[in-house]
Amino acid sequence: MTKRHLRNPFSRLSTPELPTVGPGDTALVTGATSGIGQATATALVNAGFRVIGTSRDPGSLNSVANTPEGVTLVPLDLSDPASIDRLPGELEKVRAGTVSVLVNNAGESQNGPLEELPHDAMTRLFQINVIGQVEVTQKILPAMRDQGRGRIVFVGSMLGSFPLAHRGSYGASKAAVKAFGFSARRELRPFGIGVSVMEPGAIDTGISQRRTIYVDRNGPYADEFATMLKNLNANEAEGISAGIVADEIMEAVTDPRPKPLYAVGSSAGVAFPASRLLPRDAMHGIIAKRHGI
Questions:
Q1: For domain 20-290, which CATH number applies: 3.40.50.300, 3.40.50.720, 3.40.30.10, 3.40.50.1110?
Q2: Which is the catalytic residue, given 170, 214, 221, 262?
Q3: Which secondary-structure segment (H or E) carries 197?
Q4: Which key words tag this protein in UniProt (predicted)?
């Protein structure tokens, strides 16, 4: 008796192969003069892409000094809707052509207990980390869709999957980005465009010196917040390099079957499987303990 071939019932749900992007294509990386954006822009240049980076002030000494070799900078301030509206024109000025790879990286890191977060601060955070990234993507998509291939990577955070006390606004913004990315993945697949979300854990990028903080230093949350922040800074100082995150982003860019989610750092290989087994409160407790609270 011949063996019957057993069809995998989930085969239709697996990631289909998409048209690839590669050397000679144009890549746009937001926030390309520091951290993950800088490392990713460098990796894309090394892989043969033409790379356009963004900076709020491309002409500043800091931006000029930190622009990777081979990267062309254009101005973009995600907190300013008018700046986002000007992005297509700025890309035309440098003759960028059709953008085949978009890495939505620029963002703000915010900290503070829920009760003490100012309205204006939360509004700015979501404009930069969520609405700004979505609107940049909207500017790029028509041409990418017309050419029938492309890759979009939203740089989120493991805090979008594993919330931490006193970092609720930041984690919420990254969870929102993930939802947009996952839904767009289905929307854009028929047009040959792959969408992925990158969730890094603790990274040694110096971001501890740039994050915004909102807390009453004499208020009821002050002591626990100070403990959390001290441990957060220590974890990031011992975290993985931005280059390791960039390597994962390059996997999403170059793989013909890009995964929906890439995660690296902070024991990501253990954290995500564990989250499917442990009660939610237990998992959140582990995250809190790692930060001394």
A1: 3.40.50.720
A2: 170
A3: strand 193-200
A4: Oxidoreductase
